[in-house]
Design brief:
Elements: E1 6-11, E2 14-19, E3 31-37, E4 45-49, E5 56-60, E6 63-66, E7 88-95, E8 100-105, E9 113-120, E10 123-130, E11 144-153, H1 156-170, E12 183-186, H2 188-191, H3 197-205, E13 216-219, H4 241-250, E14 254-259, E15 263-264, H5 269-273, H6 289-292, E16 303-304, H7 310-327, E17 331-334, H8 353-368, E18 372-375, E19 389-391, H9 400-413, E20 422-424, H10 440-453, E21 457-459, H11 468-483, E22 489-490, E23 497-503, E24 506-516, E25 519-533, E26 545-552, E27 555-564
Parallel strand pairs: 12-13, 12-21, 13-14, 14-17, 17-18, 18-19, 19-20
Antiparallel strand pairs: 1-2, 2-11, 3-10, 4-5, 4-7, 5-6, 7-8, 7-9, 8-11, 9-10, 15-16, 22-23, 23-24, 24-27, 25-26, 25-27
Length: 565
């Protein structure tokens, strides 16, 4: 069933919607494009994305299961109400045993698109809607809305491949998507916001010998005086960040830096000197993030820069250009990006939060030039075509629960790797800290997750304190990246088995249990091969065979098996 105020235009196998209504009433956050029969069984497994990085949903249509800690309709994020039906943003995959069906938005220029499964007089329906953000058609610069596709097939990887190709027609990828993935070290998961310049230098000094393959040094949150004043260092970085980056370059390493470009705390100079640069409520009051969503993890309250304002765009370009040209930064980790999309009153009338966010990212790209852009805590589809890499999971934490969570988050988005952006599964952490530790078996699971993921490979451990296990793990993960930086492909939404051709005669199989019973897995090939454990090198068979049985222990466990000619 179609909306009478819309004209749909078919382009190959996708449909673009144009608004042809005569009235100029504000378009609500649940503006329906069309509905279609939900012609699947009640037990069909679903997978839907979230508006922002920390939200994904699986389960069945009547029993949805949130994968991450921060659903879009949680009491913290409040993108839509807790009592409303579950929204599946961007795309919805249905596994009905016989084949897969994918409902997907192929672009996100102005509006976030989502799907809902609703019951009514006509039975169970899939509804496709956009969040109009209360904008009025008379204020739009275009009446073309977003495009949607429905795909079916028996192979999940092939379905994703076709979907990614359609997205690329609307959002061509940045050059860094197909460049070698950064391999290095990040300061956050050792020092967090207490990082000092001496901490950086201590880790930099040991990035030699066995650790010389760690090429990048990512200075994370904590170097700046205030959130928003990114060019002004804190007292912990006397001499400035520019001087530290020069040290990093003298050591033959590449520098990366963290910033949250769209927010500022009230103590910052950018906020105190430029109050007109910030998003406001419609009554004219300044909008604090906590008024409408999660307020932020530190240095709150956060105020949101209005990136529809040309002065703000120039400000962002200046910051990033200074870091790129004068400091020598070669990768920007852009965090808290979701807050750049918050709804409110902006400089340009009729501009949505999605549009404003994209304007801001384009201003950043202008300053970054050829440097890499990594999105983090980002709105997913609004970032299409604007980042080289994308964090696809929650923050890593040395705990079984978090290792399992980020594994599922990463694996469900691994199809996006090198198609939309390089995926970032977050840092490898294999060394316990005084206030954060877990059992060795959980670290083993975590390294198998990173082995399957591909994408960015950053150590989050204190490098001077690496254990033999941690050093061996890093070495083996880097070796995998030399063979291939692609993501292993999962053939079903169960996420139990992924495979990847490392070379013409060598294939990697990654097997996972998520707190399930022990089970025996049979791996097969078209011709006899040697089979061995990736980590230990132990042979699983005396000679080449076409079939091997592998025991996967109960609990949170993983195995990595190589099949080789």
């Amino acid at each position: 069933m179609a909306n009478p105020d819309l004209l749909d235009e078919a382009r190959e196998n996708q449909v673009t919607f144009h608004y042809i209504g005569l009235h100029n009433d504000p378009i609500p956050d649940n503006y329906q494009l069309f509905t279609s029969e939900f012609d699947f069984g009640h037990s069909a497994t679903l997978l839907g994305d979230g508006f922002q990085m920390l939200a994904q949903t699986t389960g069945t249509y009547d029993k949805p299961v949130d994968i991450g800690r921060c659903p879009d309709n949680s009491s913290s994020y409040r993108i839509y109400g807790e009592q409303q039906g579950k929204r599946y943003y961007n795309y919805l995959v249905v596994d009905d045993s016989a084949e897969y069906t994918l409902f997907g938005f192929t672009c996100c220029h102005r509006y976030a698109g989502y799907f809902e499964i609703v019951s009514g007089e006509r039975g169970v329906l899939v509804s496709a809607s956009i969040d109009g953000e209360g904008t009025s058609p008379q204020d739009w610069d275009s009446r073309e809305l977003e495009s949607v596709v429905v795909l079916t097939g028996g192979s999940l990887p092939q379905l994703y491949q076709e979907y990614a190709g359609l997205i690329a027609q609307h959002h061509p990828v940045r050059a860094g998507v197909v460049q070698p993935a950064p391999i290095g070290w990040c300061s956050w998961y050792v020092y967090y916001a207490d990082v000092t310049k001496d901490n950086i230098r201590q880790n930099l000094n040991v990035m030699t010998g066995d650790l010389s393959d760690l090429e990048w040094v990512l200075l994370d949150d904590g170097y700046q005086a205030f959130m928003g004043d990114w060019l002004t260092p804190s007292d912990k970085f006397s001499g400035g960040v520019k001087e530290l980056i020069a040290d990093i370059k003298r050591k033959g390493k590449k520098s990366a830096i963290w910033l949250a470009p769209f927010i500022a705390q009230p103590e910052s100079e950018v906020f105190k000197q430029n109050p007109s640069w910030f998003v406001r409520h419609h009554n004219g009051d300044l909008l604090k993030a906590e008024d409408v969503t999660y307020g932020g993890w530190r240095c709150t309250p956060w105020y949101v820069l209005d990136t529809s304002n040309p002065e703000v765009q120039a400000h962002l370009t200046h910051i990033v250009k200074t870091m790129r040209e004068e400091w020598g930064v070669e990768l920007f980790k852009l965090d808290a990006n979701y807050w750049g999309t918050l709804k409110g009153k902006r400089y340009q009338r009729g501009v949505t939060g999605v549009q404003a966010y994209r304007m801001g990212m384009e201003a950043i790209a202008k300053g970054a030039q050829d440097a890499l852009l990594l999105g983090c805590n980002a709105p997913m589809w609004p970032s299409l075509g604007l980042v080289d890499a994308m964090r696809v999971s929650d923050d890593v934490e040395r705990s079984a629960q978090r290792f399992e969570q980020i594994a599922k988050e990463t694996f469900h988005r691994s199809w996006q790797h090198r198609k939309l952006w390089q995926i970032d599964p977050d840092c490898g952490t294999f060394v316990s800290l005084a206030n954060q530790s877990t059992d060795p078996c959980n670290y083993d699971f975590h390294r198998n997750v990173l082995l399957a993921s591909g994408g960015l490979l950053l150590s989050g451990d204190p490098l001077p304190d690496l254990t033999p296990f941690a050093k061996t793990t890093l070495s083996k993960l880097i070796l995998r990246h030399r063979y291939s930086q692609d993501a292993a492909q999962f053939t079903s939404l169960s996420l139990h088995h992924a495979s990847l051709a490392l070379t013409e005669g060598k294939k990697l199989h990654c097997l996972f249990n998520y707190n399930e019973n022990a089970r025996e897995v049979t791996l097969t090939s078209d011709h006899p091969l040697y089979w061995y454990d990736y980590w230990s090198g132990e042979k699983l068979t005396e000679g080449p065979v076409q079939k091997v049985r592998v025991l996967l222990a109960a609990g949170l466990t993983g195995r990595a098996i190589i099949a080789s000619m």
